[in-house]
Amino acid sequence: MSETSSNFAAGGSAGTAVPVVRAEHLGLTFPAGDGDVVALSDVNLTINKGDFVSFIGPSGCGKTTFLRTIADLEKPTSGTLSINGMTAEEARKARAYGYVFQAAALYPWRTIEKNVALPLEIMGYSAAQQAERVKRTMDLVNLAGFEKKYPWQLSGGMQQRASIARALSFDADLLLMDEPFGALDEIVRDHLNSELLKLWGRTQKTICFVTHSIPEAVYLSTKIVVMSPRPGRVTDVIESSLPRERPLDIRETPEFLEIAARVRDGLRAGHSYDEEHV
Ligand SMILES: Nc1ncnc2c1ncn2[C@@H]1O[C@H](COP(=O)(O)OP(=O)(O)OP(=O)(O)O)[C@@H](O)[C@H]1O
Asked: Residue limits of the ABC transporter domain (predicted)?
């Protein structure tokens, strides 16, 4: 079946794909005094188990709103959304996802291990279960040895790794990441990108990742969702032909640059800048 601009499957190979997130004709309009804001319009997208999907688009195109809608932090005004076959509300109650925000959002008065354990405490895990899961996730993000430190004793990159550990601690299959490395310098970001890819390879999670960076989107993703503003729409879904094992220097290969060029074209096509300034 050919894909149209309003109907995309961001999924694994045909026949084996298990849908995790399915949006059909999804729309979300924020009422505002000076005119409604159409943040999402007619979004049709299927994200399958094990996908690493990046959302890229100009500021205000609805990337965060889409993630927040999956997380049941916003309610759609039209269309349907299902997560593992559940409504967003049911999925939230079933703890179907972990959420990583742009800022690490760690509590400064708690040690790193206590921050990572927080969701487990809230969910009523026993002390022994908490300790076992905190150890496992701290190992996963390479933070072993920093359990007793406070957030302010860690670098920005380490704080973000702690916030990823917190999102992974209760073993949700779906990880929602909203520009988690946007505030970090490029070298740290490169390092965390490559660690995140390894973590994804080891855990087989499904990841939805918001970014403004074309190289980051191409380096990380199996699928790149290109969005355009006014109203926020999906204008392209690019399936990556890159292998799952990706050393950082893959970014200099012709295949990588070709995908990056397609993302750039998609962003340009959806952007009103040229029309506004001619
Ligand atoms: N609670 C709200 N009330 C009114 N408008 C909102 C609200 N939240 C978001 N918006 C608007 O919806 C649109 C989409 O916002 P959103 O934050 O999803 O964009 P984004 O693509 O994530 O942007 P950025 O890349 O800058 O983070 C924007 O025009 C924004 O101003």
From this structure: 21-254
Q: Which residue segments constitute the domains of the chain, with CATH numbers given? A: 8-96+186-277 (3.40.50.300), 108-171 (no CATH)
Q: Which residue has the tokens 């190289």?
A: 215
Q: Is 175 helix (H, G, I), strand (E, B) or coil?
A: strand
For the residues 236-244, what does the mean pLDDT come to? 92
Residue nearest to atom 6 of ligand 1 (CA): 30
Write out the H or E segment, with its range, that includes residue 166.
helix 156-168
pTM beyond cutoff 0.90:
no
* CB-based contacts of 187, cutoff 8 Å, min separation 6: none
Whether complex ipTM tops 0.90: yes
Nearest to 36 by CA among 47, 28, 45: 28
105-120 confidence digits (pLDDT tens)? 899 999 999 999 999 9
Which DSSP symbol is given to 244?
S
Give the nearest ligand 1 atom to 74 CA: 1
Phi–psi pair at 48, nearest 5 degrees: -100, 160
Ligand 1 centre distance from Cα of residue 68 (Å): 10
Query: Does ligand 1 lie within 6 Å of residue 235's CB atom?
Result: no
User: For ligand 1, atom 18, which residue shows the shortest CA distance?
Assistant: 62
pLDDT score recorded for residue 159: 93
